[in-house]
Design brief:
single chain; Jelly Rolls; 2 domains; 4-stranded antiparallel beta sheet; globular
């Protein structure tokens, strides 16, 4: 679990610096394992950093299973681990329930820079009011999207609708929402 609870700011969100799936040393996660399973210290899965960044950047909490990154196996016979380095950055965090609008706004002289945006569902306790359980139980259908960044980056304000017509439908039958984080930068 990568958690974006930040010290000193209630609006901290995750900014992934790097991620590794494989093995870079013979100490991490080696207890009780035979030496042959951790002797290969030059093993890593290509694309893990980009995968974790796409999944987690801009979120307050992000959970990743090693099952999400194990294929193809980068080094058969080596006992591997997932290591993530991240920081928490202050940001404006918004959630817009399905068919509602996310309004991104910056003060005069500042412009929007989107840190991360996701459409779907990864939490039963978000946008669940008046919904039958069957519409909120699938929490494995959140997709990273560049649509918000392409529409809003560099603008002073921006409104975007949380709808399937804008983002597609990553999980039919599930009540979805748009989750995003952004900062305001000087022009």
């Amino acid at each position: 679990v990568v958690s974006g609870k930040s010290h000193g700011t209630k609006n901290g969100v995750i900014r992934v610096q790097s991620a590794l799936y494989g093995r870079k040393n013979n100490k991490t996660c080696s207890e009780g394992r035979p030496p042959r399973e951790f002797s290969n210290t030059g093993c890593s899965q290509n694309g893990t950093g980009d995968f974790v960044k796409n999944r987690c950047n801009g979120k307050k909490v992000c959970e990743i299973s090693t099952n999400d990154v194990i294929s193809p196996d980068p080094c058969y016979g080596t006992y591997k681990y997932l290591q993530t380095n991240f920081t928490c950055v202050p940001a404006i965090h918004l959630i817009a329930c399905y068919q509602s609008y996310a309004n991104l706004n910056c003060d005069k002289g500042r412009v929007i820079s989107v840190l991360g945006a996701y459409f779907g569902r990864d939490n039963k306790a978000v946008c669940y009011a008046s919904r039958p359980p069957s519409q909120v139980e699938n929490v494995y259908c959140s997709n990273s999207t560049q649509i918000v960044a392409k529409s809003c980056n560099g603008r002073n304000s921006c409104t975007i609708k949380a709808s399937g017509s804008v983002f597609g439908d990553p999980c039919f039958g599930t009540f979805k929402y748009l989750e995003l984080s952004y900062v305001c930068k000087c022009k």
